[in-house]
Amino acid sequence: MPPPDSEGITPAQQVPQKTTRKWWQVALSIALLGLLLYFFWPLLGEIRAAADLFRTADWVWFLIAILVQIVSYSFLTWLNALSLQPFSGRIRFIPLMGVLTAMAFIAVAIPSAGLSGVALRVHLLKKYKYLPEEALFSLVVETTLEFVALATVAVVGIAYLIHSGGLTPINILGLVSLGLLSIVIGWVSWRILSDYKRSKQVLKKFVNFWNRHVRKQRELDFNELNQRLVYFNHNLRQYPRSSILKFPLSAYGKVVLDVVTLGLCFRLFGYSIRPDTLFIGYGLILTLSGVSALPGGLVMTDAFVPVIFSRLGVPGSVALAAGLSYRLIAFWLVRFVGYISWLILEKRK
Question: Residue 21: pLDDT above 60?
Answer without folding.
Answer: no
